[in-house]
Write a structure and sequence with these properties.
Shape: globular
Radius of gyration: 24 Å
Distance between the termini: 31 Å
Order of helices and strands: HHHHHHHHHHHHHHHHHHH
Length: 461
Amino acid sequence: MNTTFWEAFGNLSAIGQFLFFFALFIAFAFEFINGFHDTANAVTTVIYTKTLKPTPAVFFSGFMNFLGVLIGGTTVAFSIVNLLPVGLLIEGSSSRAIVMVIALLLAGVIWNLGTWWMGLPVSSSHTLIGSILGVGLANSLMTEGNLSGVNWNKAMDVGKALLLSPMIGFFAAAMLLLAMKVVLKNPNLYHPPGEGDNPPSWIRAVLIATCGGVSMAHGSNDGQKGMGLILLALIGFLPAYYAMDLRHPGLAVEVHDAAVAMKGSLAQSGGEHSKLIDQLDEIESGLAGKSSLKDVPSDERWQVRQSIYRFGKELEKAKLAPELSKQLAPHRKVLKHSIEYVPFWVVLGVALALGIGTTIGYKRIVVTIAEKIGKTHLTYAQGAAAETVAAITIGLADIFHAPVSTTQVLSSGIAGTMWANKSGVQLGTIRKILIAWVLTLPMAILLGGILFFLGVWISGE
């Protein structure tokens, strides 16, 4: 049976349909809040160095965020999705899956709004990842009495990226500023702008370019986190429709042929790969005679998806010879493509939410970053150094598929330039920011877990 979106949506109860739209609303709201929560990181330097006035600065940043989402790809999104074993979303009852999705979305929104209201530049990445960990842990504790509800290997990879990025921001920005002092002798670059001062044209161009670079990198990296949230919602509510990529007519044949080719390579390798071959048998039989993934009956799509997903996990754990791994790689990519995809309307919706959110609500955190981290206001050179490092760091994170925090990278970079410039730092503000950074992950875990527990209790599961 070739199920359309509206048929799959129609199979939900009235309450399910309401909760589906509510989950999408909260997911897009998270990205909207992320926009004005993190916008300050990009626009602070151009506003406080008088390179651009606030209104054109935030609209420029908003447009670059929008553009970054559209061109940034989707790999980071699946780093977020794969924090949870996605099977958890449907292996339990459907109502529990719905509670899980809504709980993690609400936890992220509540913490982000609260810290924004206090003017604290905390990490939306930490918030999101913490809320995902919270619902996963709560679910596994309630159902199995253990902590298996989280993909810990993926969580460790994400955690390393989030811990390393602020250190890179601090030291790299400090070193860049010191290098600028050696090369660029103009003393005006290293003093806060005075009344009526305007930056030299070349530094203005650098500041505008780095503002655009940070904004685009933020859109690319953080936008993918929003895509990951929405994918969790779509998979949780409509697994039959979003289990596999139904958009490409010939994909079923490509996946079937890739499974056959991989099975042949494994069989000829002479190693003991019976488990991998059995899983490829499942994929092959599930797609036999199908010209399109739409031809797979809707009630069987999730099983095929899980076979592909399990095979991928087993392949990651298998110790294959380098030559065999290289031989399987292109076929593995075909299989991955069939289950790791983002519908274009999700990409466009996240781009709009992040871009529009960027244009409002930025002032609270701008003031904290520009006036309260250091004992003096930002200088031209500090702004250029901190934003250059932030744009490069976040851009590299995209290349290596690592979700990092724009907030942490840039605010750490500004603190590094304050130290290098001997401007001094306001320890009270640094203490508040550090406390917020330290508390974000555990508080988001706690919020996500509590909201999930309450939701399950209210639903009677």
